[in-house]
Amino acid sequence: MKRINLKILTIALAVVSGSSLYSEDIGKFALVIGTVQVKSESGSWSNAHVGLAITEKMQINTGMKASAVVALNNGTRLKIEQATMISMDAYKEGNFGSAADVNLKQGRVTAFVNKIQGDQANLMRIRTPTMVAGVRGTIQEVSHDPERGSEVFLHESQAEVIGRSGHINQVPEKGELSNDGRGDVVTPEDNKNKSESVAVTDQSMSKEERDVITLKEDPMFSTNAADVQMLIEATEHAAQQFGDFGITLPGAVPPSIQRL
Amino acid sequence: MKIMEKKNRLKLINPFRGFINIAAILAVCVSFGTLGAQEENQPKWPVITASNPASDIEAVRILMDKPVVSYQDLADLVVIYRGEFNSYKSPEARIKRTADLGFLKFDGISDPAHTAMPRGKLALIFHKMFDLDKGLLYTFTGVARYAHRDMQALSILEERFSDMDYISGGAMLGALEKAEKVENEKKNWGKPAPDVREGLE
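The joint structure predicted for all components is written out below.
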């Protein structure tokens, strides 16, 4: 009897420890051209192949004249161009839909995000060292190199780009937005909405403040519906504050008109 | 007359005046010498670390993190871009290959792995690697300065730097990608743009 109990205990322990070590697959490689390597959170670099499972925190690196297409579980596809380094920082699925966070260190990625279905949303962010680009139901190209900074090109639909100080910029369809290495958002000459460009660098801000505003622990990846509601309310509150200072956000109604 | 008398008196009073002057001069020389020695001990900017990657993708990863690239890195990039890394495994072979291709002369560079490469040389290489529009001055002279101006005009290299400035590994990779893009645009001028949905759906 004691032996049987010991066996059950051993199996139970193995299952528990196994489940804690097990990292869930969030997608797989749909296409690999040339040399593409991956590195898990606690591993070394190894070659990628079609069908290889992708896990959270995995780093993907493409070589020269190489590219790869990654298919995430929510139907989102990421095309990773040559000499690019990305990491799949976060991926969550819940009642709200799904949310993915990709960190682009260098190179170029094109994201094709499935459109919103019913109440559910497919949220995706591509984060570069100088900005965060939100992709929702669009085809969007994001690139970054340390000298030129970050560039966003919208092939379809439109997107919001948040600078390091939290200012939001709308990028129209076929529009382009660049964000240089110093953190200033500038639209190129061919961007129709030049007046929407704003400077986002605020040297007085500490790193912690920036993290709070743009990066760390934001409710975007929460599976709780209340957090998503809080995010919406916070955005509306920010728009109202802009209105108080006489700054009109695209689509927002100036307070003077509201009073009338 | 009185002044002369005063001077003569002072000479008598201070017989070590000449020695004091010599000592002062010596002290100044010694202090300068010490400062010079201190400067020699400090590392000279920029500090470039040499690397010998085992594969082309590893070389790309190393390049991404390099704050300043060397002549060796440039030769590596040329060989990697041509897909010949496995044929030229040693750094010396890659330097020789780049020189043999006629892309760059490495004369006078004794230690290419530790010698910082100016942007003008990268511009020269881009003119050799890609079919890009050449300016009149570069066509006549073929010098790095005007090659660099051409790259700036084509938005391949940033305008805020000169041809003698150095470049980081990440910026060099970004510039290479941009040069390739500009060449493709030139080649495919007038043709319909490739479908972005290709391979994504």
